[in-house]
Amino acid sequence: MTSRERILTALSHREPDRIPVDLSGHRSSGIAAIAYARLRDHLGFPKRPIRVYDPVQQLAIVDEDVLQRFGVDCIELGRAFALEDRWWAEWTLPDGTPCLMPAWCRPEKVDGEWAIRSPTGRVIARMPEGVLYFEQAYYPFAEADDLDRIQELFDEGMWTGVKSPPGPVAAGPDGPQLLTEGARRLRQQTDRAILGLFGGNLLEMGQFFYRNDNFLLLLAANPRRAHEFLDRVIQIHLANLDRFLAAVGPFIDIIVFGDDLGMQGGPQVSPRMYREFFQPREHLMWQRVKERAPHLNIQLHCCGGVRELLPGLIEAGLEAINPVQITCRGMDPAGLKRDFGAQLTFWGGGCDTREMLSKGTPAQIREHVRRLIGLWRPGGGYVFQQVHNILADVPPANVVAMFDAVLEA
Predict the structure, then answer these.
(1) Which distant-in-sequence residues (6+ apart) come within 8 Å of 316 by Cβ?
(2) What phi and psi values does residue 157 have, to the nearest 5 degrees?
(3) Which three-class secondary structure state does DSSP give residue 114?
(4) Of 18, 163, 224, 344, which has fewest CB within 10 angstroms of its CB?
(5) Where are the alpha helices (H) located in 71-202, listed in sequence order?
(6) Given the DSSP bridges, would you call strands 123-127 and 113-117 parallel, antiparallel or unpaired?
(7) What is the pLDDT along the chain (409 residues), one digit of tens a residue?
(8) Residues 6+ apart with CB under 8 A from 285
(9) Residue pair 58/31 in contact by the 8 Å Cβ criterion
């Protein structure tokens, strides 16, 4: 099978010729730039500039030689953009490794900390010394909201304002045409399945604007205002979705939405609250996808323990979920596969990153991955990725052991 055929076969709940593999196909299946530099050295691959496409999490663009070494079957649409040197600026990772950051959001030192500014000059993200990623520093609605300003304030929040490629490459009046040209070019160049990252966050959008505590209080104490906020947000999302699908829909295979609905101990919201506030709006977006681009598979990035929410997500139209955080309450792989495997593709859950990948031995990791694949594989509906990103402290030998275990399965 080609890589695209392998992925699409798994998504159709049939077993492909081998387990499909994802590494950096979306933001939560990637690798920290620090770990990536060490991995390249460990593999004996030539030195290349380390390009950090996600400044917040400091994730690296994975080069073709590494993708081939690990048999990776998918690629993110953003790899078609910001290819010229002018889009990149020199920076240094926290461990001293030189790298290249997107020129449009290069971090700078402010009061002894690394910071990223919005276009208005406001500090929206900070990274103190000794820390390996940025955290949000400004919440537009933390003190008071103004629903008429949601659209203009997107650039004032870290997760909505710090953009990965294509970023400004496809901004302006020629943006749709440039998006289409880049997506078409990538489609012609690769037989990997192409993931288009859209977002469409709902719960998280409230947390980005109000701050986590404030938005959860708003949902519980002032549901009418929460609905008003989410109504404004969904209209913005639907308009953006129409433009996105018109520009790139024919050239991608999977559209990735995002909303971290879970925590280590279970969902952030009850199933009742999920069905009141979020399910109807997700259904609107996912129905729009099927109307405009019925060939696309709908995937949701959703961290945490969300077992109780899965029936509602499936009813809303969800077809695949990542990263399948198997260490959370309720996220036992055998139970998930038994109860939801006929309806959902599990894109992830292939190796615990919290304990095993960082602290285990290569032999332990191989056995761990083989055991999990044995649970996930039967009947298709599975794509391998580790549970979220490969963090900076992961030994390169462990990364190799993980992917080799998949290729040998």
Answers:
(1) 279, 280, 282, 283, 286
(2) -115, 145
(3) strand
(4) 224
(5) 158-161, 175-189
(6) antiparallel
(7) 999 999 999 999 999 999 999 999 999 999 999 999 999 999 999 999 999 999 999 999 999 999 999 999 999 999 999 999 999 999 999 999 999 999 999 899 999 999 999 999 999 999 998 899 999 999 999 999 999 999 999 999 999 999 999 998 888 888 899 999 999 999 999 999 999 999 999 999 999 999 999 999 999 999 999 999 999 999 999 999 999 999 999 999 999 999 999 999 999 999 999 999 999 999 999 999 999 999 999 999 999 999 999 999 999 999 999 999 999 999 999 999 999 999 999 999 999 999 999 999 999 999 999 999 999 999 999 999 999 999 999 999 999 999 999 999 8
(8) 200, 234, 237, 238, 241, 257
(9) no
Residue 320 CA to residue 314 CA, distance in Å, equals 9
Distance CA 249, CA 283 (A): 18
What is the SS3 assignment for 321?
Answer: strand
Q: What is the rounded distance in angstroms from the CA atom of residue 215 to the CA atom of residue 142?
A: 9
- How far apart CA 409 and CA 94 sit, in angstroms, is 36
Q: What is the DSSP letter of 58?
A: T
Which CATH number does 3-408 carry?
3.20.20.210
Number of neighbours of residue 71 by Cβ within 10 angstroms? 18
**Encoded tokens for 179:** 């998006």
| Domain range list for the chain | 3-408
Say whether 358 sits in a helix, a strand or coil. helix
Angle separating helix axes 203-210 and 223-248, nearest 10 degrees: 110
Q: What angle do CA 152, 158, 160 make, to 5 degrees?
A: 50
Query: What is the rounded CA–CA span in Å between residue 385 and residue 322?
Result: 9
Q: What is the rounded distance in angstroms from the CA atom of residue 242 to the CA atom of residue 262?
A: 28
Find where tokens 């990735």 sit: 256
> What distances in angstroms separate CA 289 from CA 73, 152, 233, 255, 320, one per listed residue?
23, 25, 17, 9, 14
Write down the pTM of the prediction.
0.96
